[in-house]
């Protein structure tokens, strides 16, 4: 599915990217017994994206989700998209355990 999607120029828009990410990551996390939540504005603009940008962003998020599944022990992964007139922000969070910085401690 991802190979076909990546090669489809008609998918070079923000709406298609967000829909594909929500579908793909919900399926991937469900297979691992983890809940996925995709949070984005209910109305996304008709924003065209270059194929390179769209694929690069997808693969970066895919890597983040995969790392959370494999290494965090999370029960939930959330993807949040924020958009304004000049910025697109995409945040991936999970509720799993995370590495501490050297010398760090809980407290």
Describe the SSE topology.
Layout: H1 2-6, H2 14-31, E1 35-39, H3 51-71, E2 76-83, E3 88-94
Parallel strand pairs: 1-2
Antiparallel strand pairs: 2-3
Helix pairs in contact: 2-3
Key attributes of the depicted protein:
107 residues, alpha+beta, 41% helix, globular
Care to give the gist of this entry?
41% of the residues lie in helices and 19% in strands. With 107 residues, the chain is of the alpha+beta class. It contains three helices and three strands; from the N terminus they run ααβαββ.
Mean pLDDT: 85
- Could you state the order of secondary-structure elements as H and E? HHEHEE
Shape: globular
What is the overall number of helices?
Answer: 3
The helical percent reads: 40-55%
Q: Hey, roughly how much beta strand do the residues contain?
A: 15-25%
Q: Strands of the largest sheet, in order across it?
A: 1-2-3
The residue ranges in which pLDDT falls below 50 over 5 or more consecutive positions are none
Cα separation of the termini: 45 Å
Which class of secondary structure composition applies to the elements? alpha+beta
Strand elements, count: 3
Question: Main beta sheet, described?
Answer: 3 strands, mixed
Gyration radius, in Å:
15 Å
């Amino acid at each position: 599915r991802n190979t076909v999607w990546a090669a489809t120029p008609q998918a070079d828009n923000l709406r298609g990217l967000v829909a594909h990410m929500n579908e793909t990551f919900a399926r991937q996390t469900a297979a691992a017994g983890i809940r996925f939540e995709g949070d984005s504005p209910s109305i996304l603009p008709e924003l065209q994206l270059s194929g390179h940008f769209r694929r690069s962003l997808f693969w970066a998020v895919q890597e983040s989700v995969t790392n959370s599944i494999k290494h965090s022990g999370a029960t939930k992964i959330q993807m949040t998209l924020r958009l304004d007139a000049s910025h697109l922000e995409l945040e991936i969070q999970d509720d799993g355990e995370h590495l501490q910085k050297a010398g760090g401690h809980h407290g």
